[in-house]
Amino acid sequence: xxxxxxxxxxxxxxxxxxxxxxxxxxxxxxxxxxxxxxxxxxxxxxxxxxxxxxxxxxxxxxxxxxxxxxxxxxxxxxxxxxxxxxxxxxxxxxxxxxxxxxxxxxxxxxxxxxxxxxxxxxxxxxxxxxxxxxxxxxxxxxxxxxxxxxxxxxxxxxxxxxxxxxxxxxxxxxxxxxxxxxxxxxxxxxxxxx
Length: 194
Description:
The chain has helices at residues 2-20, 27-34, 38-41, 48-72, 77-112, 117-139, 149-161, 175-188. It has eight helices and no strands. By secondary structure, it is mainly α.
C-alpha cells in the first residue's frame, strides 16, 4: 500500500507542477491537492525536488525504453520518424503532466540543480536521435535535400511535445490516432496536390 500511495502522491504532484510550474509550487499546495498535511508528505519524500526528480526520471526512463526499441529496429528514416512520433504521443498519453513539466522546466532545473544534469543529457540524446534520423533520410533521398535539419528537428520536437498542453487521456482520439493525423500533416502536407 505505501508504494501505491507514493505513486498517487507523485501523480498529484505532477499535476500541480504542470499547472503551476516547479518554482511556484509549494509542498503545502501538493499536500492540499493530495488531501493531507504538508508534514505528512515528508513521510514519503524529503523535498519537492525529490518529487519532480522521480516524476521526470520515470517519464524519461519509459520514453527511452520506447525510443531505444524504435532506434534498434532497423527501420528506414521515414518509418523511424513515424515510430518516434507515435511513441512520443503514447508517452504524452501515459505521462502528460511529466511531459509538460519536462517542456517547461528541464532547462531551468538542469541549469540550477546539479542532481538534474541528466536532463541536459536527455536533451542532447533527443537531438541526436531525431537529427540522426533526419540526416539519414536526406542522405538516403527519403527527405528533401533542401531540408534544414535543425529547423525540421525543432519543428517536429516542439509540435509533438506541445500536445501535452491540450491532450487528455481517454479523449475521443487516442495517441496512435493523433500520431497518424500528425504524421500525415507533417510528412504529406495538408494541401491537395494538383
